[in-house]
Amino acid sequence: MKRTLQVLNELERGGVIERYAIGGAMGATFYVEPLLTFDLDVFVVLPQSAAGLLSLAPLYEALRARGYIEEGECVLIEGVPVQFLPAYNALLDEALREARETSYEDAPTRVVRAEHLIAICLQTGRDKDRERVRIFREQAELDMNFLAGVLQRHGLEGKWKQWTP
Amino acid sequence: MEAMDTLKPEIARLFVAKEARRHRLAALPFPEKVRAVVRLQEMAAPVMRARGRRVRVWKLDDRVA
């Protein structure tokens, strides 16, 4: 996975993506017990094209040029299927902006903050997201004031109350 | 399922130990957790494949064969 992250860093340095951060189950695993996943979910801020459109196509092209092939919704990068998810709303923009800088085996990387991962789960709203919120509450060290701000800014307080009776 | 306070002490102790183990796992360094996820993938992959799902166990650069 170190090489995978190095490739993501190269893409960021080269301007193919503006910024990235690990989310999904692997992002959650940073804060809680290891969770089974087969994909590395990576949130990305994409540069805008001249026409003002956001597209994953230039990213996929850059990866193809490096020899990385698509596998379903993922791109296989150095043995790890990576799913790129463009920041498509204000919550994801904020999550990417405020992602935590860390490193994996000397490779610098970013992971979405636990509080934002919770908010993303609330927004997504599937059964597995609800279960993940429960695990976060049990195991992660959360900044409850920060979480309250995120929930308030993104209109998720009602869902939080509904899911955490 | 019985509530924790009505369980036999032995069973309750097992649940407490299980919970403590999950908290210990949560406190592991990130690279160790990633290795644990890959071990989970190795265990789960045959079951997923038998259900018709295409899954791939991650290749970790730092793994010793």
Assign a percent range to the helix content of chain B.
55-70%
Roughly how many Å is the radius of gyration of chain B?
Answer: 17 Å
What ranges of chain B have pLDDT less than 50 throughout 5 or more consecutive residues? none
Largest interface: A-B, 28 and 24 residues
Structural commentary:
The complex is a heterodimer of chains A (165) and B (65). Chain A is α+β, with helices and mostly antiparallel strands. Chain A has helices at residues 2-13, 24-29, 57-65, 90-97, 114-124, 127-139, 144-153, 157-163, and strands spanning 19-22, 40-45, 70-71, 74-77, 80-86, 100-104, 107-111. Chain A has a single domain (2-163), classed as Beta Polymerase, domain 2 (2-Layer Sandwich). In chain A, the strands form two sheets. Chain A has a five-stranded mixed sheet with strand order 1-2-5-4-3. Chain A is globular, with a radius of gyration of 16 Å. Chain B has 65 residues and is mainly alpha-helical. Chain B has two helices and no strands. The radius of gyration of chain B is 17 Å and the shape is flat. The model of chain B has no long low-confidence stretch (mean pLDDT 86). At the A-B interface, loops of A face helix 1 and helix 2 of B.
Q: In summary, what is this structure?
A:
Chain A is of the alpha+beta class. Chain A has helices spanning 2-13, 24-29, 57-65, 90-97, 114-124, 127-139, 144-153, 157-163; strands at 19-22, 40-45, 70-71, 74-77, 80-86, 100-104, 107-111. Helix content of chain B is 60%, strand content 0%.
Features:
heterodimer; A: 165 residues; alpha+beta; Beta Polymerase, domain 2; five-stranded mixed sheet; two-stranded antiparallel ribbon; globular; B: 65 residues; mainly alpha; flat
